[in-house]
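Regression check, pyridoxal-5'-phosphate case 383:
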Amino acid sequence: MPDPRFGPSTPLVPPLYAASVYTLPDLDALDDVYEGRAAGYIYARDAHPNAHHLADQLAKLEAAAWGVVCGSGMASLSAAFLALVSAGDTVLASSRLYGRTTKLLRQEFHRFGVRTVVVDTCDLDATRAAVEQHKPKVVFAETQSNPLCRVADVPALAEMSHAHGATKLLIDNTFATPVLYRPTEAGADLVMESLTKMIGGHSDVTLGFLAGTDPELLPTVNQLVSTWGLSANPFDCWQADRGLQTLDVRMRAATANAAALADWLAGQPGVSRVVYPGRADHPDHDLSRRLFPSGCGNMMCFELADGRDAVNRFMRAAPGVPFSPSLGHTHTTISYPSGTSHRYDSPAEKRRQGITDGLVRVSVGCEPFEELRKEMAKGLGAG
Ligand SMILES: *Cc1c(COP(=O)(O)O)cnc(C)c1O
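Current build output:
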């Protein structure tokens, strides 16, 4: 309904509708909204304008048929698995996943009789064999894994998933974002993003997003999100909408900074290893060039030869690169996988993944490169 106070004008940016509930003129109007004959809202846990506005833009960006915003990245993953599996089903999951996602599958879904089989999705032969053997309902991988940026060959995973009619490919695209990669265009059925990271982009929202190519799945996902209480609140959606408007420029600037930082770090004394898919020595360098023609993203790692003590000295000497165990901020932040995301992995598991005591993960931001290089030099100077 047009608001007479505005006359012919409308706000340039979407207003924040904080309402948890709406009012309707009568029962006929209520029926019209419930049954989809009229647009409208009833109860914010079911739907609200700020979530819709954000979801529409993100779905377009992902080249998906539909999109739903959820209260966190984990909420959107929960919604995805709840929509796709039931007791007795199998999920085939990458052996390099965000820690909470592993917990979600191994602890939570396991309790409801969903089996998770883990495979190294970078080994395509092993993955194909596992798909044929276990006939999973879902194959799940991250476009770029945390923290070592191993890259999933999404087109190949889509092809082998679809060779078995009922298998869906779900991709966590949080590290790449739709600016660098759109999994649906490579055949993924569903894609998930943590909006808490680069898309929100300012470290002030916790939100997630799920998108899909099959329009028939949308009513199921909407029901699940409302019934399990996975919905997003309006304020976070409004904030994330602001972040989204600059995603493209932030991602491109941060990607250029990351490429420059990786090359610079590789020449610094005390740095024993640099991990960035844009560098020729990364195990997925060729695949990255094929998948990410506009750059390999803002996430990278470097290793300090003197281990944990050197990391402590680095942190104390370079407060301008805050130690902050998340990613996707406007400015560069660092994290320490061995003590945060992989804290509870056994030493053997950490060794298997290459997560050493000196490994520092960097979420590169979009500040001027010289500013970043100077701050990093301070940290390394404390060597
Ligand atoms: C942060 C993250 C998640 C979870 O997102 P939240 O918004 O923190 O719930 C899932 N996957 C990846 C790769 C992440 O980095």
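Comparison notes: The mean pLDDT is 96. The longest helix spans residues 247-266. No diff flagged against the previous build.
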